[in-house]
Amino acid sequence: MPGCEVQTDPIVRHALASGKQVFVPYLHKSGLPPGEGPVRLMDMVSLKSIQDYESLQRDKWGIPSVDSATVHERQRSIGELDGERSNDVSLDLILLPGVAFDLDPETGAIRRLGHGKGFYDYFLHRYAFATRTEKDSSNDGPSVLLYALALKEQLLSPTSGEAVPVGVHDQSLDGIILGDGQIKQPAGSNRE
Question: What structural domains does the chain harbor?
Fold first, then answer.
């Protein structure tokens, strides 16, 4: 979000210029019956090129967004839009936004507080379910690296007496990259 999060424009441009596949969030109607889940879901859809990225229109929050008319031409990370199945594409890394972050004093896990809509939390749950294999069926989390981008002021100090509230569907992160260049990872982490 312009003005209150680490800007990802240079990251997206560098990744595309380096020939990497880049996926961006896309919000759409869920198609779930009322009361059986959220009205809107998030999926990750591919960008085709830097020109494609530059053609994205900003939504009401100022976030460059994919035009719904082009979604069916794009690769998607999980299955279904408007009842139409697609081939799933596995992701290697997801950079998550957030309002605040902290390190759990007991476990060392990195916790994230989002903007409250649950789009990323529900996406990660769906992604984990869609990509789960028999060998990793005991793992509840997604098989993708989860890193947050944050301003250093968004990382709560252990001495502040404040903690990020955590629910049963919240995923701990593999790391957090701070705007001042620091990279924090959970204690005992071996994922890179």
Answer: 1-86 (no CATH), 90-192 (3.40.50.10420)
